[in-house]
Design brief:
CATH class of one domain: Mainly Alpha
Bound molecules: zinc ion
Oligomer: single chain
Strand order of the largest sheet: 1-2
Order of helices and strands: HHHHEEHEEH
Number of helices: 6
Helix content: 40-55%
Distance between the termini: 45 Å
Largest sheet: 2 strands, antiparallel
CATH topology of one domain: Jann2411-like fold
Structural class: mainly alpha
Number of strands: 4
Radius of gyration: 23 Å
CATH architecture of one domain: Orthogonal Bundle
């Protein structure tokens, strides 16, 4: 989601360094998030987009502050999102700009300033989560030391880690090492599997023809 990915470009959140160091990096980000077609991004756009990040982060913080009963966080949350949409002069706009999307809805006019297009797109996606009662999907990465935010769109709401800092992999490696240490120093190392059974022509093993 654009909002989460944008928050995570800030230094100290997903990565240590600024992930939007120049207008070129902003262009790459906008391409990746379907902010097309558009005019070229300038330095002033970059400044505005960077300034949007703490406003978006505040939405995750409002959700966290209201946990576990998210209802408590709703008034401030709705207010922040409404303000975001209002500032961005958001308005639905049907477009067909090619690329296989067909006719679809943008949330700003095509000639709107880039910052408005980004803020409106982020605001609409977040408003949808509020509308659906799904703000619990706005979370922070569970990896120690990682400040990244995430939107858990998994079916069973089981996502723990961001995809910014390779946190999932790092946590799996850490857990594996911890298990190895425990078994090396412990007493209950499981016996190795004896004589691997082989199923000739198991499922999926059919030869063609
Ligand atoms: Zn589009
Ligand atoms: Zn992370």
């Amino acid at each position: 989601m654009l909002a989460a990915d944008l928050v995570n470009t800030a230094p100290g959140s997903g990565t240590a360094a600024e992930a939007l160091p120049d207008a070129g990096a902003l262009e790459v980000f906008l391409d990746a998030h379907h902010v097309v077609p558009r005019r070229a991004a300038w330095d002033e756009d970059l400044i505005a987009v960077r300034a949007l990040r703490p406003r978006l982060l505040a939405i995750w913080e409002a959700v966290a502050a209201g946990a576990p009963g998210a209802a408590a966080a709703m008034p401030p949350l709705a207010a922040v999102i409404n303000e975001l949409l209002d500032d961005a002069d958001a308005r639905p706009w049907l477009v067909d700009h090619g690329g296989g999307w067909g006719w679809h809805l943008h949330v700003t006019r095509p000639d709107a300033p880039l910052i408005h297009r980004i803020a409106a797109q982020a605001g609409f996606a977040l408003a949808d989560l509020v509308r659906l009662g799904e703000t619990g999907r706005l979370r922070r990465c569970a990896a120690p030391g990682c400040r990244a935010v995430l939107v858990d769109l998994s079916r069973n709401r089981s996502r723990l880690y961001c995809d910014t800092g390779n946190c999932g992999n790092r946590q799996h490696v850490a857990a594996y090492r911890a298990r190895q240490l425990a078994s090396a120093g412990g007493t209950a190392e499981p016996p190795p599997a004896q004589g691997r059974r082989r199923q000739p022509g198991g499922p999926g093993g059919r030869s063609p023809g």
